[in-house]
Amino acid sequence: MTTTGEEHARALTGPWWWARWRSAVLDGSLALVSAVECGAEGVPFARDAGIPVSVGIVFGLIAGSVLLVRRKWPIAVVLVAIAITPAQMGFLMGIVGLYTLAACELPRRIIVALAGMTLLGTMIVTFVRVRQDMARGDLTLGDWFVPFASITTSLGLTAPPLLLGLYVGARRRLMESLRERADSLERELQLLAERAEERAEWARNEERTRIAREMHDVVAHRVSLMVVHAAALQAVARKDPEKAVKNAALVGDMGRQALTELREMLGVLRAGEDVGRRAASAPLAAVGVAAAEAASRVADEDGAVEGPCLSELEELVGQSAAAGMAVDLSVEGEVRAYAAEVEQTAYRVVQEALTNVHKHAAGAKTYVRLAHRGAEIAMQVENGPPPEPASASAVRLPSGGNGLVGMRERVVGLGGVFVSGPTDAGGFRVSAVIPAA
């Protein structure tokens, strides 16, 4: 299992310059063995140098113990090993020090220079010692053996620790690089997860807003007409039974249409739940994408029922006229087909505007204008002042205050322009322009 950079930093609990306690114990053990070795080698060195043996032993112990600081000052350890090479001391310190030097993150020229000095010093000392042994008769080989022994001995004591140190250093740097990349990938994954969660939450909010807007458009207009017809039915029930029957039939038709549209909306919601379950089973990074796609495609998947279109606009106006509204529809330009979302948005704008007339200006003369232009479609619903200001309240139509907001969101969402406000004559005007593409 690969540890991350933070876990690696928390693992650095050793004393002084050691990263771990086991590293300190290892260096202490190596320094102890090196000190014993140098101390033992200090005895013949003292005899050859003509100094007291105790001095040679103390010198060897001090020189060998330098290996304790090999991780902190590897150059100093190698220099000490080179310095005591003529005394035939510190073989372990030279090998370990050279390995540590090669494994450190030092410039290559320094490593090569110190390795060359070690190689040259070992070669010279070995050459001198072997030549002296042959002069004393300890070795009876030919003259070729002196350079051969010096070269092989110096290479044997220098090349293996140097190559091993270079390999370990390169591997250590590779592991550090991989650890940094793992940390970076972990941070990126966390960022992607956070962004995916934010996108999923945004998609859920958008879907809730869309559903609320659709429910408002589906229910508000039909129910408003039903309330208007019910009020008219109550007024003429005894005076004009035939008109009352007609109004009752209209109320029934409106109720059935409202139930049909609600049923269609529930079918869309069930399709959206299926999409949500598929997104929940996907990886976390795909949740935001799946939710966003569900928000934009839920109305079209699995054969969901399409929304209203502009060809139904005349029927919509006729329903308002049947409810007693004096409404006039005019269409300009060449009638043509648009994208489904464009036609649905245009229809909903006119529908909501007529609903607001029923709520707030019952009985007012209303004009519905639709203009087919080259690159856009424009619509306008304008009503005059109500003949009886109290008529709207008499019908008792509640208002949630979200109709204009929903219309603006629909139009702006398609890149169009929406304007609404009172007129100078005391009425109200709703205008919208939607790009055809």
Please, could you describe this protein's structure?
With 437 residues, this protein is an alpha+beta fold. The chain has a five-stranded mixed β-sheet, covered by helices on one side. It starts with a helix and ends with a strand. The protein has two domains: 5-188, no CATH class; 306-437, 2-Layer Sandwich (Heat Shock Protein 90). It is built from 13 helices and five strands. Helix 7 crosses helix 11 (340-360).
Q: Secondary-structure element sequence?
A: HHHHHHHHHHEHEEHHEE
Our Rg estimate from Cα atoms comes to 47 Å
Task: Provide the low-confidence segments as ranges.
Answer: 1-8, 279-305, 390-394
Distance between the termini: 55 Å
Work out the count of structural domains. 2
Task: Break the fold down into its secondary structure elements and pairings.
Blueprint: H1 5-10, H2 21-49, H3 53-64, H4 74-83, H5 91-103, H6 108-136, H7 145-236, H8 241-280, H9 284-297, H10 313-322, E1 327-332, H11 340-360, E2 366-372, E3 376-383, H12 391-395, H13 403-413, E4 417-422, E5 428-435
Parallel strand pairs: 1-2
Antiparallel strand pairs: 2-3, 3-5, 4-5
Briefly characterize the structure.
The chain is α+β, with helices and mostly antiparallel strands and 437 residues long. 67% of the residues lie in helices and 8% in strands.
Question: Keyphrases for this structure?
Answer:
437 residues, single chain, 13 helices, alpha+beta, 2 domains, five-stranded mixed beta sheet
